[in-house]
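Researcher: Structure prediction, please.
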Amino acid sequence: MGISADSTIYDLLKTKPESAEVLFKFGMGCIGCAIAQGETIREAAMAHGIPLDELLSALDAGQGKQG
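Model: Predicted structure follows.
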């Protein structure tokens, strides 16, 4: 399964558990959040004020926010 903005956080973490570290580096505690079951990466980025393209790039590369 490829990562897309419309993938849910749940599916992302199920498919790529290592993505949890990336989410944490962006300040997203999505693992324990009940909303993660149905929330998409796009929706989570908007809710946390994170640029979607930056988050998707980091998830694709397997890294968190730099700097």
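Model: The two ends are 30 Å apart (CA to CA).
Researcher: Thanks, that helps.
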